[in-house]
Amino acid sequence: MAMFFGGNFSQTFRKKKLPPGNLGLPLIGESIGFLKAHKGDKAAAWIEQRIAKFGPVFKTSLMGSKTIVLIGPSANRFMFNDAAIGSHQPVGVTQILGPNNIFELNGERHKIVKSSFMGLLKPDGLRTHVPTMSSIICSQIEREFEGKDSVHAVPIMKRLALRLTCALLFGIADEEWDEDAMVQEFTDAIRAAWTVPIDFPGTTFRRGLKARAKIGEFFSGLLQRRREKMEGGEVGEDVVCSMLGVRDGEGKGLSESEIIDNLVTLMFASHDTTAVVLILTLRQMARDEKVHDKILQEQKKIGREMDGSDGRLTWNELQKMKYTWTVVQELMRMTPPVFGNFKKALKDTTFGGFDIPKGWQVFWVSSGTHLNEKIFQEPQKFEPSRFEASSKSFPSYTYIPFGAGPRSCPGNEFARVEILSTIHHLVTKYRWSEMVPNEPLTHQPLPYPAFGLPIKIETIKNSLQ
Question: For heme, which residues are the binding ones (predicted)?
Answer without folding.
Answer: 409
